[in-house]
Amino acid sequence: MNESKRVEIAWPELGITVRAELDERNRSLAQCLWDALPYRSLQGHALVAGYHLYHLAPVHTLLHAPVEYRVDRRTVPDGTLFCSRLQHLGIKYGELTEPMTATPVGQVAEEDLDALVQAGREVWNSVYTTKEPIIAEVRRAGGPGGHVLPRLPIGDPQLNQLITEVHAETERIWTKPPRELVDLHAGRIPSKAGSYETVLTTLLFVNGETRPLGYSCYGGLVRAALDGMPMPWLRQMTRQLAHTPAEFLGYCGLDTLWNFTQRLLASLERVDSHEDFVAAMAHMALYCNCLGSWNLHMFPWESGDTMRRVLEPA
Fold first, then answer.
1. Which of 158, 160, 196, 209 has a CA-to-CA distance to 99 between 20 and 30 Å?
2. How far is CA 257 from CA 80, 242, 245, 253, 283, in A?
3. In terms of Cα–Cα distance, which of 302, 306, 129, 300 is closest to 200?
4. Please, is 171 exposed, middle or buried when counting C-beta atoms within 10 Å of its C-beta (0-12, 13-18, 19+)?
5. Tell me, what DSSP letter sits at residue 228?
6. Domain extent listing, the chain
7. Topology adopted by domain 6-140
């Protein structure tokens, strides 16, 4: 274990703190996380995979940092910490069923595993039932808490102004739910999206479009640019991947996202450097991923409580 990289993960609303150590299995990812501390973020819980906590980490470099070691996350000990290119810090605290390879970066202290399980149960109740947000704070052990949302430099003045606004909006909604999503979940939908006045259907489609927009579109464009894809191809891929889902989400009520997207697409011909392109797409990824985190938290999962997996007889 790297003794210099001890961290604390706290959930102040729960009165729970666990200690962990970052290790050398994926040193680049661990360093990215370490350099970003301290930060706060809305705590989420896996909805399909099992007993797993994750939250969005405000770390742009997680989108592309090199990976050195992968595991099937079902097979590693409880308390394993993971970082991913979805900009997540995840923590396994029990059985996982999804056969997904993952990139471990550390381990929760053995004596804190019971507290981790308690936190996991409380967060599940928050996400599934109560909808009361729980904020995670990740900090260096013995160090101060706090939060800073990083801002990447952009040379082009017009694009820089847009990303300044994207950054400010991301910061504004980082630990407070976006008003547009609050209205949408309350059924206040100016466009009347939702056939026969339904709301759940609209929420389902919003969730289905927001997550891949951040994870696959903007995160993928960052990696493509860093892999050397020529700028004309990057511009074309951005237009192809971003326009349609963002336009649909604007129709459903996410006007700010659609406004940002239109201005981004209009600015593409001005972008000549890969550095400016990467910075812009990284900020769009973080903004969309933040929207996605809130949508997952606010979604009325409990409405499906009568639908349960059929257990095969022993």
1. 209
2. 34, 11, 10, 9, 12
3. 300
4. middle
5. T
6. 6-140, 157-301
7. Cyclophilin (2.40.100)
- Rounded to a whole number of angstroms, the distance between the first and last alpha carbons of the chain is 42
Strand, coil or helix: 8:
strand
Residue 214 three-state SS = helix
195 CB-side CA count, 13 A: 3
List, for residues 46-84, the tens digit of each pLDDT value: 999 999 999 999 999 999 999 999 999 999 999 999 999
With 70 as the cut, is the pLDDT of residue 180 above it?
yes
Name the token pair of 308: 């349960």
Q: In whole angstroms, what is the distance from residue 169 CA to residue 177 CA?
A: 11
CB proximity list for 101: less than 8 A, separation 6 or greater: 70, 71, 72, 73
Parallel, antiparallel, or unpaired for β 50-56 and 39-45? antiparallel
Burial annotation 282-305 (CB, 10 A radius, 16+ → b, else e)? bbbbbbbbbbbbbbbbbbebeeee
pLDDT in tens, 144-170: 999 999 999 999 999 999 999 999 999
Q: Dihedrals φ, ψ of 88, to 5°? A: -105, 145
Residue found by looking up tokens 């927001």 in the block: 210
pTM of the model: 0.95
Q: At what angle do helices 255-267 and 274-298 cross, to 10 degrees?
A: 170
